[in-house]
Queue: 4 jobs
Job 1
Amino acid sequence: MENLHNKVALITGGSRGIGLQIAKHLAAEGVHIAITGRNFNHLEDAVDELSTFDVEVTAIVCDSVNKEDIQAAVAHTLETFERIDILVNNAGIMHNSSFLDTTEEDLMNMMAVNVFGPFHFMQEVLPHMIAQKSGDIVNMSSMSAVNAGPTSSAYSASKFALSGLSDGVMREMRQHNIRTFLIHPSAVLTDLIGEVTLDPETMTHPEDIAEVIISQLKINRRTFVRTNQIWATNPTKL
Ligand SMILES: NC(=O)C1=CN([C@@H]2O[C@H](COP(=O)(O)OP(=O)(O)OC[C@H]3O[C@@H](n4cnc5c(N)ncnc54)[C@H](O)[C@@H]3O)[C@@H](O)[C@H]2O)C=CC1
Ligand SMILES: CC(=O)C(C)=O
């Protein structure tokens, strides 16, 4: 099994939802944490929560649509910890609308955060992982990258694109001892999905996604789970 203790993780969109749970679960394993997000106060609250673990924590204000922000976030993480072992491309947005009501701007916004963000983060981080001959990339896609639904064409397009990007990176990078994990959750109980009509207890919670990711990262590094699909037991419309 892989020991995560003393590794360094950079988690995008780490101040709430699935990203915060991944950060907390990694911190519980002894992983030093850098989180990014757009809102300084939200990041500060997350740092307070993460500081209860016996690890170092840093937070960086970084808009995933801004390449310079991303370069600065990666540079800050490397200055602070001198390495990045795990990059979690988690930050994402979803806008639901019927196809004919979806504007070019809606599609561009989702492509900017959900595809170009991970693209730039991986371009910044991978040279360091190649040099250190080790690394793990976790790309947070979605079941919407497997089956599009009505009102999710643009979001699905962005997640299909992320899945393709991730799969290509995986094929190039595994020769460098870099594992690329492509995660496909179905609906998870976070702010992203808006109003919930199901019994919350029957839905997947952010900590469930974090547990799956941590268990995958702990597999002996000669092996990795290329992609997964994480479903709730309770049937949903998704
Ligand atoms: N909640 C769900 O049902 C599912 C979520 N996902 C994916 O999981 C990831 C996390 O989503 P949730 O935790 O559910 O949502 P959330 O809305 O609770 O959290 C999203 C995070 O991304 C950050 N973010 C958004 N735009 C950003 C930007 N421009 N720059 C920097 N950070 C930005 C937010 O600040 C927040 O921290 C997303 O990529 C989402 O597409 C995938 C499948 C299901
Ligand atoms: C929000 C999302 O990505 C779903 C429901 O697959």
Job 2
Amino acid sequence: MGGGGLTDQSQCLPLHTRALPHHTSANRVFAVVYLCAILALLYHHFLALLHTTTVVSLLFLLADAVLAFMWATAQAFRMCPTQRQVFIEHLQHVAKESDYPALDVFICTADPYKEPPISVVNTALSVMAYDYPTEKLSVYVSDDGGSQLTLFAFMGAARFATHWLPYCRKNKILERCPEAYFESNPSSWFPEADQIKLMYENMRVRVETAVKSGIISHDYINSKQELEAFIRWTDGFTSQNHPAVIQVLLECGKDEDVMGHTMPNLVYVSRGKSINLPHNFKAGALNALLRVSATMTNAPVILTLDSDMYSNDPQTPLRVLCYLLDPSMDPKLAYVQFPQIFYAINKNDIYGGEARHVFQTHPTGMDVLKGPIYLGTGGFFRRKVFFGDPSETFELKQDHLGSKSIKSREILASAHHVADCNFESQSQWGTKMGFRYGSLVEDMYTSYMLQCEGWKSIFCHPKRPAFLPQLALLKPAIINLVSFLWGMNYYYFHILGLGSLHNSWFRILHVSNPWFFLYVFLFLGAFTQDYLDFILFGGTTQNWWNNQRAWMIRGLTGFSFGSVEYLLKSLGISPYGFNVTSKVVDEEQSKRYNQGEFEFGAPSPLFLPLATAAILNLVSFPIGNHTSSQSKKP
Ligand SMILES: O=c1ccn([C@@H]2O[C@H](COP(=O)(O)OP(=O)(O)O[C@H]3O[C@H](CO)[C@@H](O)[C@H](O)[C@H]3O)[C@@H](O)[C@H]2O)c(=O)[nH]1
Ligand SMILES: [Mn+2]
């Protein structure tokens, strides 16, 4: 495993270790027992079918076969889960700070009204303040909304950062997202804290006022250069149709913080768009950033983040280096994925929004197989994985960058060129290169394609969450199914949509039937195992219960709607689209949420199947009881 390196000492000091959780063998044994029970059940159905073929017996066989298949796919997660640990303190034996690879961070935003610019600014500030050599750090913001408001917000952020970064460094602040830091009411308050807080509040109010009024006050624009940036928003400029806008807001080696230390690069990018050309949503935005960053910094390591996610641990890139710089590491390692962990979830997680299975349990189970899927955010990639399979020797060309300023006319010209909406026409972007197109879940699809090429990944799940995303309230959890299958793990995600089918079958069988007890075993066994899994990952009973409820609701609503939507799209009946989730917090709604109240306020067709099923269950319960008590009479 880990270790190896420059000095003799490093031979015995591992950079990382991995272990099998204790309960794995119990899970394996249980899987065998459970498999036998399923086989017995299918055999029973089969016999029944030979005896008398009715529609009901056929349906039973079909339903249980689907269930059995779902069960089998879910077992892949349980066979060899992995718990990893890294040792940042051993990194010094392997590499000097000056040998660390450069890191380009990509942050995506798409709509200033659904994704408040101040929250994107917080995302950026939290990573700009990473404990990483500043001259090796660059942050690129992709604005698919093509909004002056976002650019304006980032101009303020660039100025605030010159105070925030040295403040964090000097006082060794752990919480480097300003909003989270000031909200947490830090116990140790430093002398400059009040002043910094005031600066932050001023910036926040300015940005929020601008978003509300739609007017950008020129009083807060400091330089002629900044003012000129807005000239590009001409009359015909819309979010769907405009030329590329790239603005370097901070340049490493030129811009300094208030202590005289250099700042990291901060670049605003709004790729060119045309209503006549597909823009391929987030995957398209990320690919534009891949190319723009290549003309400026071309860092060998890339981190992608969504606008609702912030860094919660400044040492995260060092954790990643424990894998990337390990000389004995598999050269096929493509990316290191961190879980999505939500903050501000109410105590019992009433909507089951935490999605522990998807973001924590499953990636842990996939880790040693070929690695976890890419979760769309919180993934550190090697740049080269986007340009070929592991056997190809990709050379990261750095010489064209030379010592030229990223603000030089030459570099800006090539950056604008590669961000143009026509650049990808007739190219391999999205098919062989970059993030892959053709699926709305570009994350899962891209990692699936990369793993097909032979790349691998690692799941890094430190105790202190590396990143925290905001939970979108009332988000219909529509899962769009991708049309390719990848081993059992990917099968599992594909048939998630079928989950809606299975819940009702159990209720049809009579207690008098001895096979009923097999059902009881299968049913309770699965639930108990799921429950134990949940508790082992730190959940509570109440959370688990709410999760089960949410799973039922999603099966009937999001998953089945998603499956229908996918079908319509595949047949070309409905168009392909992506709705950006709104991250705007409604005070009233969030108050109700924190009190644990269910929200039924939003009108949605999703409630139709839900209400129907509830009524049907309500009605069939007394009827079922009535008929079974009648049938017991001689
Ligand atoms: O045309 C677009 C659409 C979206 N986005 C960005 O994509 C991110 C994710 O969008 P969001 O509306 O938050 O979607 P979610 O459903 O919450 O996203 C989940 O699912 C997506 C698709 O699988 C993943 O990309 C995300 O990382 C994952 O959090 C956001 O930062 C958006 O700004 C763009 O940049 N351009
Ligand atoms: Mn999101």
Job 3
Amino acid sequence: MRILHQSQGFTTFEQAYEMAEKSNQPVLYSKTMEVESIDPLQFYEAGYSIFNGSRSFWQDPKSELVFAGAGSAKTFYIKEEERFDSLSVQWKSYLKNAVIEKGKAWTGPVILGGFSFDPKKKKSVEWSAFEQGYFQLPAFMLTVDQYGKTFLTMNVECKKGDHAVQVWNQMQKQKTALLNKSVSSLKDVNVLAIKEFDPEEWKSSLTSVVGQISRGEVEKVVLARKVKVTFDDQKRSDSVLEKLRDDQSESFIFSFESGDSCFIGATPERLIKKHQQQVLSTCLAGSIARGKTVEEDQQFGNELLNDEKNLGEHEIVVRMISKSLEDLCSELTVPDQPVLMKMRDIQHLYTPVEGMTARSSILEFVKELHPTPALGGTPTSEAMQIIREEEEMDRGFYAAPVGWLNAEGDGEFAVAIRSGLLSGKHAYLYAGCGVVKDSDAEGEYQETLIKLRPMVRAVGGTIS
Ligand SMILES: C=C(O[C@@H]1C=C(C(=O)O)C=C[C@H]1O)C(=O)O
Ligand SMILES: [Mg+2]
């Protein structure tokens, strides 16, 4: 990897081509520059006409960092079950042949995407575009950082035989279009139907899992279900992102397009953030509705903070995450008590965990942590086997790690809950709940309804 610290423009681009010619291997040319401030969602929408099907979006809570990607210079389709190691190896090896110009910007080349929840589960058709892992190195990526500075990164794979001047000119043209295009308003798309798949059967399998728990076979299992939404026309990810950004600014907002499909959502749950030696993870489990008045909301919150069933659900997650991170970190801070995290429709028990590490890649943490008992269960392998058997559906990327990673191995991954898959005139939305010994089927079913609400609303529907 060569990192150039001055803006040398076309000359370095030509050098990347010379390297490609000589080595007979593709060479990544990546250039980051500061640009005038532009709304990242406008950039994403401007990418629709040329890059529909290969756009990406990421916004962290309180939008301290936003990425919008248009087009893909390189797509990593991960097919192996060992998906975290596989991406790590491929990304490192890809960066060996790279010319990176980034001046003072810290971003440079970044890949965005996600992994499957369970590679052992049989894949359903709707998830076929995503494999076991799907990451894009955007051809054009806009970054808005915590200071409100805006950067554009252009990535292009230089290949032997390509015409450098033509590629350069096309890049400049596309860049101008993305940064200047005014966006036309999106067409209204209506929800025709929302279908639940046999809730009674789901409740009865939940009851049978409670039985397994009370017999001591497992301690906790997270069971999920999906609903299918039908629209009168193709639902665009742009409009869903817009709604999520209005309603769920406390959450991670993401979208990853793969051809006609798009995995999209707004999740409150951080899996891991790594910035140099600092790491941060989140234990999030235990839920209650928001109150209708301030008093009722506080009362619900207090109830949750003192509820044995929910505290139990939460404690299992804290135990596992602390233990996993202990092996990877030198110092670990774990508060004794959870606090409340409140979103528009729901409140959760929340414990942040912080540590210091000497490890170089965030993917080592993802591999160690996934699946946490917030989405899988405990003991992990028994819980995963029960999920495989009891859940009819393929979770795909739901409840799995999604996020981004840079050339230094730093980045951030969230757990993709409160999410769905857009696919033409349909959307599949997912929600689950932690089943423990005191769970009752109707209560857990109601909890999944609350958890579905943000995504149902974002696609333009309503659910009870
Ligand atoms: C599984 C989901 O959420 C998880 C389950 C929770 C619970 O059961 O209390 C709370 C937060 C998440 O860890 C989901 O939203 O789909
Ligand atoms: Mg719960």
Job 4
Amino acid sequence: MNMPWTPPQVEAPAFGFHRLQKVFRSKDGGDVIALRDVGFDVRQGEFVTVVGPSGCGKSTLLRILAGLERASSGTVSLGGQAVTGPSRDIGVVFQAPVLLPWRTVLQNVLVPAQIQGRDMKVATERAMHYLTLVGLENFATKYPGELSGGMQQRVGIARAFVNDPMLLLMDEPFGALDAMTRETMNLELHKLKERTGATIMLVTHSIPEAVFLGDRVVVMSPRPGRVTQIVDVDLPHPRSLDMINTDRFGTYVSGIRANLNAAGGLD
Ligand SMILES: Nc1ncnc2c1ncn2[C@@H]1O[C@H](COP(=O)(O)OP(=O)(O)OP(=O)(O)O)[C@@H](O)[C@H]1O
């Protein structure tokens, strides 16, 4: 008996950019082309990192996906829908976590749930779950001023997860931390990703950070930002800090560095 033909199941991407351009009007009236013809798709559950020199448009790309900025042309889709504005389905972590100093750690994590009118009993359970995953379960009743910079950033990460976002966007989340804390935070974030299966896009200046965290690394040229390379990082999971010293890791880092240098731009 002939079976009816069914098309192969193609999983819809979590999000994607197609021929994206962004032009800013500068104060003197000239045009600043921030992004030129950017296009790539990201799978559900993928951790994609974006690396490139200062001013190449990484934050702009992230802000367009978050619906905080509009593209000049091209399309951006999230879960199969065009992005037209900010979405509840996206959690964002910026370089500085911007915590409210008069609220406890737990109360800070609950802010997005309160804003969205969620059931606070359920939200509190979720908040404690994520505080535990970032290692801060014993700090729930402390105030931000009692925490180190790395701990404050972890609060920001737990807060971004509290509404169970479809997608987590991170803009240089560890850029203000010292090198050792940054490594620890990379490991923590990697574990969090392994446990939650979240789809994450993280932008960074650091090539080792991009390789350590990324399933794929998107490499961008100096302004106007274009994608010059997309690297599949075939390193085993879970990743460990020991891997940073391996030849394979070093090969990925030097390959991306060479690409950035060829494009004219490491800062
Ligand atoms: N609101 C704006 N008005 C005018 N120009 C802007 C605006 N926002 C960004 N730009 C310009 O667009 C370009 C890209 O900026 P963007 O912040 O996205 O770069 P970036 O790669 O994130 O930089 P960095 O790594 O230094 O944070 C820069 O030249 C910047 O000056």
